[in-house]
Amino acid sequence: MVDNFRMLFIWFLLFSYLRNSTSLDSLAPSQSIRDSERLVSKEGTFEAGFFSPGTSTRRYLGIWYRDVSPLTVVWVANREKPVYNKSGVLKLEERGVLMILNSTNSTIWRSNNISSTVKNPIAQLLDSGNLVVRNERDINEDNFLWQSFDYPCDTFLPGMKLGWNLVTGQDRFLSSWKSEDDPAKGDYSLKLDLRGYPEFFGYEGDAIKFRGGSWNGEALVGYPIHQLVQQLVYEFVFNKKDVYYEYKILDRSIIYIFTLTPSGFGQRFLWTNQTSSKKVLSGGADPCENYAICGANSICNMNGNAQTCDCIKGYVPKFPGQWNVSYWSNGCVPRNKSDCKTSNTDGLLRYTDMKIPDTSSSWFNKTMNLEECQKSCLKNCSCKACANLDIRNGGSGCLLWFDDLVDMRQFSKGGQDLYFRAPASELVNSHGKNLKKLLGITIGAIMLGLTVCVCMILILKKQGLARIIDRNHFKHKLRKEDDDLSTFDFAIIARATGNFAKSNKLGEGGFGPVYKARLLDGQEFAVKRLSNKSGQGLEEFKNEVMLIAKLQHRNLVKLIGCSIEGKERMLIYEYMPNKSLDYFIFDETRRTMVDWPKHFNIICGIARGILYLHQDSRLRIVHRDLKTSNILLDGNFDPKISDFGLARTFWGDQVEANTNRLAGTYGYMAPEYAARGQFSMKSDVFSYGVIVLEIVSGKKNREFSDPKHYLNLLGHTWRLWAEERALELLDGVLKERFTPSEVIRCIQVGLLCVQQRPEDRPDMSSVVLMLNGEKLLPNPKVPGFYTEGDVKPESDFSPTNRFSTNQISITMLEAR
């Protein structure tokens, strides 16, 4: 009898061990999993359990791919309420509710089941990655009591539905993690908007960041080119009960997911059965993906890496002055006022490969064909444009727009046809010019081709010898003028950079990539490799070398040497471990590493460096391309000005010059330079003022737009100053420790530097005194590129008592 009890006890222990050591795919109400235990889907694709993200020690219940490296979490239950130790337990209640308990047996998360019909519930992890609660004998997904797919986090999985259940009112959308270490809801989300014809928007908070757009039968209009078209199938469901978007994988040998990153970008990842490491198929965004970046009635285009905006036919820029310097956000307006009496002569202009406009205020019909759609648009004088709803099989359905057309772009391929309403005069001009253009282009191309062929034959005969003579002469000239400047063999540089390995790439400048290099003796330096596609030719390269070789200042980057071999041209600089200024001040995480005292030191250091260029060096130099990415930071965060490829030397009493070739960076260019090609030391002062305001605010001038007044950073700062709210400009991460008087002084100096008229701006010697002294400063006047009309002109503006101490001007010191 005793032996029988002993055997029963042994069998009980054995089954208990097997229960705890064998991975299950489901839980019954009597079961639970603790921190060290896992649920594993039937085919072993997914695993569920407790984990700690990144460097965090907090514990979360998540779902991840089981055999993929690195750990790829696709869903988190208690993303807002972590467990602070390894005491967490997941259990299923008799009522079919999943619960997470902590060490005190308190519930920190529970599933919000809405079904009242519960009979023998179980929780099961499916091979789709969906954690479901269902009745034991009911596998119909429409009858699930609860499922994780209804509550997405940052990852869009195959079979998951993004969109709305119109019966229950449930909105299924993606929301980013706060950071790699914190899965709580971040700043970014991707949602389906039901207004007009449904479309996807990416949000930062409540503000629209980008628009994926509506479904056109083949793709979302914002992303017309699909990768892996043979392996994936996409579907958009739009009926009385549901509006959602989903995709399925046809090829079971691959894994493919979409993730909304903590920085707000969408990334697509791919794995295959042959490898467990994920491959990034896409990430980041080009400027045209920014919502309505070109304003209304304007089309965004990408020419290489450069963005341009063009008004649609029959429209002109609302503010031509802004348009000419690439400030496009105010868009375009009709060339002639609309008149419904003459609209019966209007026609339609066809644009191809288009991302159609925002459909949130559009009208749609699913049954019309294109001809009926076009007639419907032309019958209504308020109609601005029309397009097919579905572009498959020759097109079907109809979309009509009656308001301003927003967020359009033209792709190099893909996209769809869009028809703009235009008056008869525009249609005649458009068609009449086409034949002349074609004939002119053909004749011109033939003549140009013949001329180029003849010239190339003549040049190639002598080119090799000329290049060798020129290169050797330049090297000899360098050695003669600066004994400290070294010339390096290409092979040495290639070896020091790991053959220009991607892992050694520090960044991309205007004229080419920059790499970190390390010699055999351990010396580190930076290598700027001139790109063949850059605008910098041999003369500009020589200019940069000869200029920097003569300059020595603690706030200028030091040139160690150069390399010229064949078509390869490289500059060798001292290595800056903290990269560039923009790397810190515009990044949500890294900006917290630099406090206000360091910010102020950087502002003052840049000023001293520019003063040296303008006044104290052997030459008087105008940099012409001052911007945050050209300010490097050493190990102590001391600033050093770099990139002198566009710099120009002034001689004698010369104070300004003109150029027909604009070069520099929009957002930092002075108005007189952008509009007339006129540059001087005062144009550098303007660029410096922009940098100061960007450092104080943590915002980019060119990308910033005040949502209330549609002002850029300069205009926004001017308005805050005029309304005596200057301190509101300060970046929020700096407000824990700062000196208000220093911040206000920096803002005032920045505004003085960006004044519209060059003669109103201080020179750099005055700027250095202003920053480091306590004397009263003059009042700033209206900044460049300012168009807002609500603020009084500078002649009428007089600050009240809050800034009244600044009404006395200091003496401006003239540069020698």
Automatic annotation (TrEMBL):
TM helices/strands, residue ranges: 438-460
GO BP annotations listed: recognition of pollen
Molecular function GO terms recorded: ATP binding; carbohydrate binding; protein serine kinase activity; protein serine/threonine kinase activity
Domain Apple: 340-424
Root EC class: transferase
Domain of life: Eukaryota
InterPro entries for this protein: Bulb-type_lectin_dom, Bulb-type_lectin_dom_sf, Kinase-like_dom_sf, Pan_app, Prot_kinase_dom, S_locus_glycoprot_dom, Ser-Thr/Tyr_kinase_cat_dom, Ser/Thr_kinase_AS
S-adenosyl-L-methionine among keywords: no
A Pfam cross-reference name: S_locus_glycop
Key words of the record: ATP-binding, Disulfide bond, Glycoprotein, Kinase, Lectin, Membrane, Nucleotide-binding, Phosphoprotein, Receptor, Serine/threonine-protein kinase, Signal, Transferase, Transmembrane, Transmembrane helix
Location of the Bulb-type lectin domain: 24-146
Domain Protein kinase: 500-777
Family stated for the protein in its record: Belongs to the protein kinase superfamily. Ser/Thr protein kinase family.
Protein name as it appears in the record: Receptor-like serine/threonine-protein kinase
Lineage: Eukaryota, Viridiplantae, Streptophyta, Embryophyta, Tracheophyta
